Amino acid sequence: MQGTGTEILRGWRDLPPSARGAAVALGNFDGVHLGHARLLHDLHAARPDLPLAVLTFEPHPRELFRPDDPPFRLTLSAERAAALASLGVSRIYELPFDRAFSLMSHEAFVTEVLHHGLGARHLACGADFAFGHRRGGDTAYLAGRAEALGMGVTVVPALTDAQGPLSSTRIRRALQDGYPDWAAAELGRPWTIRGVVAHGDQRGRTIGFPTANIPLGRHLEPARGVYAVRVRLPGGEERPGVANIGRRPTVHTGLESRVEAHIFDYAGDLYGAEICIALLAFLRAEQRFESLDALRAQIARDAAEARRILHVAISETIHD
């Protein structure tokens, strides 16, 4: 059981009766965007008498089939669970996606996993949902076979706007192009990187801007540069700040990108703690400076700009 109150089950065999019999939404739910929210809304509307559940996979199937691709995930397991909980999901079936599972036929997925395993009463998915070995099953098969087994099915069309269907791919592109505000509009909340604070090289302290450093890990790397951010601390408190995402070309020559967040007016020790960094506005691209003095001066300007932007955002929220 997670702190969110949402139960996470990492298997489908031999479940207790209390973990069966839900209305189950199917998909990867990377990002948990407004299209996913619509899917869950329509599922709950179809069967408001049933617990609302999601069946998803960990890792994302693309990580198994294309292991050499750069990291692309919008949300890892913990952040995805929190986002789903905020939408009323009480149960997540987070099934391990390994080579053996990838070989399961679409017939077996419906019969063995959804029907016998989860005891699902109603299913919902997007119109392009495909499943089973070599994506052999589609929504037409799902509707026919599931209904024959006594499970209702709701197929939800993609949420669209003037740019076309809203998708995780589109949100990734917005982040990579340096538009976290566009991504936030489609997610329904700011995009957030969650991770454990690691020890850095302490250089930020020497120039007057101590930072909390978390690795990007399997997260998508957004546009490299400086952002105005909001940091959620372990106790739930949120603090404004400024963050750099990238490889720090002035002081470092490595290839690993990281997030370094300077939290305004904060002096606590966060090493080893899990924090969440929400990107609110892109300030400038990553650049190399000729000296630490030049870097220090630019960080001061970045911090001032981030404070200005965040103050405006806070003021507008209060005014509204």
Shape: elongated
User: Mind describing the biggest β-sheet?
Assistant: 6 strands, parallel
Low-pLDDT windows of residues: none
Total number of strands: 14
Radius of gyration: 22 Å
Number of helices: 10
CATH topology of the largest domain: Rossmann fold
Q: What spatial order of strands do you see in the largest sheet?
A: 1-4-3-2-5-6
Proportion of residues in extended strands: 15-25%
What number of domains?
Answer: 2
Give helix % range: 25-40%
Describe the oligomeric state of these chains in a short phrase. single chain
List keywords for this structure.
320 residues, alpha/beta, Rossmann fold, Elongation Factor Tu (Ef-tu), domain 3, 2 domains, six-stranded parallel sheet, six-stranded antiparallel sheet, 10 helices, 32% helix
